[in-house]
Specification:
Helices cover 35% and strands 16% of the residues. The protein is an alpha/beta fold. It has a single domain, classed as 3-Layer(aba) Sandwich (Rossmann fold), CATH 3.40.50.970.
């Protein structure tokens, strides 16, 4: 109506921690930017911005310039994020320390550091980004490449007779006694985004409560190296990736479930 005053209320916007800079590592349709947003929202909602310390793996996840989140953040030598995170957490036990690592960084060159951190039961949180390939260096086969998937190093599809089987990180992590939480998520639908956000929040909370290691694996699209359009990537996740890597919560323990001497 004429003369009516229209008021607008902002109901959704960019997280305060998300640095408003173009980020050259995220190709159009990549889900890593969505996951960065999710991490920012969780840090803000938990109120731990001033205590959070992030460590970036080498690759598309953050690369050599981890400036996407406005907190203390550093890049690490390839695969060594869990080792650096361990040092920071032990020197500053009040900090909330987390790593963000791709499948090559964590599952290949960094697997030793990661497994040792798990075996020690470090009070850390890891966000594991699984796009089934080496994104930054040209789309080669990664530890998480699914069977039959074509990459630059498996042009006829991954064959277990010559290249082995995919790494199921979330299930493996759940077997470790020092782990308090392990889950696998996606962000390819709004509903899955909400469930993933809850999982990441739980993983951080396990560290904050001193219970144990928290781990969340994300299935993520890589349109450039999958050679698919962003919409087709969503279909690929639904029909192929989730078949191999079902989203689930594989472990979730409370302090009451720990042996008395560890509480």
């Amino acid at each position: 109506m004429k003369g009516e005053v229209v008021t607008r209320e902002k109901v959704y916007g960019s997280p305060k921690l998300r640095v408003p800079l173009p980020f050259r590592f995220f190709c159009p349709g990549c889900h890593y930017g969505v996951i960065v947003r999710l991490i920012c929202e969780v840090l803000e909602e938990l109120g731990i911005e001033g205590r959070a310390v992030g460590l970036a793996g080498v690759g598309c996840s953050f690369g050599p310039i981890p400036v996407a989140i406005d907190i203390d953040f550093t890049a690490c030598p390839h695969g060594r994020a869990p080792a650096m995170a361990t040092a920071i957490k032990r020197i500053h036990p009040e900090a909330v320390v987390f790593t963000v690592q791709g499948d090559g960084d964590l599952g290949a060159i960094g697997l030793g550091c990661f497994m040792n951190a798990l075996l020690r039961g470090e009070k850390l949180t890891t966000i594991f980004l699984n796009n089934a390939c080496y994104g930054t260096t040209g789309g080669q086969m990664a530890p998480t490449t699914i069977l039959g998937m074509r990459t630059t190093t498996t042009p006829e599809g991954r064959d277990p007779r010559t290249t082995g089987y995919p790494l199921h990180a979330a299930e493996l992590v759940a077997t470790m006694k020092g782990v308090a939480y392990s889950a696998r998520c996606t962000v390819h639908t709004p509903g899955n985004f909400r469930r993933a956000k809850k999982a990441v929040k739980t993983a951080f909370q396990k560290q904050m409560d001193g219970i144990g290691y928290g781990f969340v694996e994300f299935l993520s699209a890589c349109p450039t190296n999958w050679r698919l359009s962003p919409p087709d990537c969503l279909k690929f996740i639904s029909e192929k990736m989730i078949t191999e890597y079902p989203p689930a919560e594989f472990k979730n323990i409370d302090v009451s479930e720990l042996p008395v001497e560890w509480r």
